[in-house]
Specification:
223 residues, alpha+beta, six-stranded antiparallel sheet, 6 strands
């Protein structure tokens, strides 16, 4: 009897928890982002047009002005003279002790997420790691070039082996191209598998194909 009640109770939690938390997080983010500029904009309108022009703070007003500010900043950043000004500010901030560590860390994360060059992970692959007979999911980044490749006798590729459940950290490995197997899944699917600790079952069968390289054939990148 109690076992059935407990199972029913937990089944209800499993259904309601994701929905409730999602709504709460969206509500929190809305209030947080709206609160950044809402009060400032409201006070500006009151000073400019008088108290009778606005009775209470308008929900969403802060977000509208925040989005407008982001677009204006982006337009300046894409301009030649704007880039010069930003580069100067960047130079100054990166030379301020303590602040530069925080600024550089946030900047690197922002560039990884929002930059047009953010597609660091190009393919989901499988490699033998950390020992023969033990396999790990990795992400192909590029064909290795420069000093690294010059010091290795075989063709190697650069891959990142992510950690679980936080795939933002991991290990950079240079693996022989012949030992890398491409997974027939998207990068997003592979990330879900890593984050879930392998508990998510993929709908399609994972097919493997060798990322082979032949010195007789013309070298080509993985596309």
């Amino acid at each position: 009897m109690w076992s059935k009640i407990r199972k029913t109770f937990f089944a209800g939690i499993l259904v309601l928890a994701p929905i409730t938390l999602s709504i709460y997080i969206l509500y929190f983010l809305f209030n947080f982002l709206d609160g950044i500029l809402n009060e400032t904009v409201t006070n500006f309108i009151i000073k400019k047009f008088g108290e009778e022009s606005i009775i209470t703070a308008i929900p969403g007003l802060g977000i509208i002005f925040l989005i407008a500010l982001i677009f204006i900043t982006g337009a300046i950043a894409r301009n030649y003279f704007g880039r010069k000004i930003i580069a100067l500010g960047d130079y100054i901030v990166t030379h301020i002790p303590l602040l530069n560590r925080i600024y550089i860390a946030i900047k690197e994360i922002s560039e990884a997420v929002f930059s047009e060059k953010r597609e660091l992970f190009k393919k989901a692959v499988l490699i033998e790691y950390p020992r023969p007979g033990c396999y790990s999911i990795a992400f192909f980044t590029q064909d290795t070039k420069g000093k690294i490749q010059e010091n290795i006798s075989v063709d190697v590729v650069s891959v990142i082996v992510p950690t679980t459940p936080n795939p933002t950290s991991g290990y950079l490995l240079f693996v022989p191209k012949k030992d890398v197997q491409e997974l027939n899944m998207s990068v997003e699917e592979a990330l879900k598998l890593v984050i879930s600790g392998g508990s998510i079952h993929l709908k399609e069968k994972i097919n493997l194909k060798k990322i082979s390289s032949s010195r007789k054939k013309k070298k080509s990148k993985i596309v």
